[in-house]
Design goal:
This protein is α+β, with helices and mostly antiparallel strands. 30% of the residues lie in helices and 41% in strands. The longest helix is centred in the middle third of the chain and has 20 residues, at 180-199.
């Protein structure tokens, strides 16, 4: 198996360290979008890295969880069908997590320098010193330490765990009638100001009634993050399309990549079913721009709403 020495550090922002990296690099910058899906694996890590719908690679690796440089053993296999392979591995092994990031790659000698903007986690620096077949790990460790010093990265910034292990635990549970008060609180917290801006008032009775109805629907899920009720998701699965009726996240759970993870799973589901993913958003709601970044386009409009769709 191929080997390298890896080291990861949390950084304040890519823009602060990138000039120092660029000054040392012989190659770069190279921008790479990566979507990593991890699968259950007892004797290491198994992940599918998708670069697009037609390009990806399956990677098995083993390395210790420790701060500072660590040796990693890995095997890679390319695929032209990452979407289908993800589905096969999900059904056979089960998913263990998912990490989406924008990576800026530089090469400094034999070291791959990654400036990663990780969805939901922030910005990181990662070094991979590629080892020769019979080379002692200590040589790569020394190179990693020297480069970290040149880049002015402190020991206190080092991260011992993989990105997938840093992600908040996210799960969906089926709503029950006992959740009606919770659904009401989430709806009021997230939609009250938009409703007032649109219609001039908050319709208390209607929202209370709809919260009771939604709590009894088999299509309603409570979003749970690190064991805490964080939001709600209501999706209708029609034969010809998927319709997102509601996706609300409480304020403490916004801007943490959770909405992107939820929508990413729905986008994948719609792609596998080969049907459009649709939703409706209030004109005053800035979430429209979030949906546009995910590939949704406006297909129709009313005085109060935009109707949006993402094709598979």
């Amino acid at each position: 198996m191929a080997r390298n020495i890896e080291i990861k550090a949390r950084i304040e922002g890519i823009e602060h360290i990138e000039p120092r990296v660029a000054a040392l690099a012989q190659h770069g910058p190279e921008l790479i979008a990566q979507d990593d899906t991890f699968f259950r694996c007892d004797n290491g890590r198994l992940k599918l890295r998708a670069f697009s719908d037609t390009e990806g690679e399956l990677i098995f690796y083993r390395r210790a969880d420790q701060a500072g440089p660590k040796e990693s053993f890995y095997v890679r296999s390319s695929t032209a069908e990452p979407v289908a392979l993800r589905e096969v591995l999900t059904l056979s092994h089960g998913q263990a997590g998912r990490v989406r990031k924008q990576r800026t790659l530089y090469l400094v000698g034999r070291t791959r320098v990654h400036l990663d903007r990780v969805e939901g986690l922030g910005d990181f620096l990662e070094l991979e010193v590629v080892l020769h077949d019979d080379e002692a790990a200590e040589a790569g460790v020394a190179e990693a330490h020297a480069l970290m010093a040149q880049l002015q990265v402190a020991v206190g910034q080092l991260v011992e765990r993989a990105y997938v292990d840093l992600m908040p635990a996210l799960m969906l549970r089926a709503a029950t009638p006992a959740d009606a008060p919770l659904l009401y609180r989430i709806t009021r917290e997230t939609m009250h100001d938009h409703a007032v801006a649109t219609w001039g008032a908050w319709d208390e009775a209607r929202v209370q009634r709809e919260s009771i109805e939604d709590s009894a629907s088999p299509n309603t899920r409570v979003v749970v993050v690190d064991g805490e009720d964080a939001g709600l998701l209501y999706v209708d699965r029609e034969p010809a399309h998927l319709q997102v009726q509601q996706i609300y996240l409480r304020a403490p759970f916004q801007r943490r990549g959770i909405g992107q993870r939820l929508m990413g799973e729905l986008i994948d589901e719609a792609r596998r079913a080969r049907v459009p993913l649709r939703l409706r958003v209030l004109r005053v709601n800035p979430a429209r721009h979030f949906y546009e970044k995910l590939g949704f386009a406006i297909t129709a409009s009313e005085p109060d709403f935009f109707y949006m769709q993402r094709l598979p």
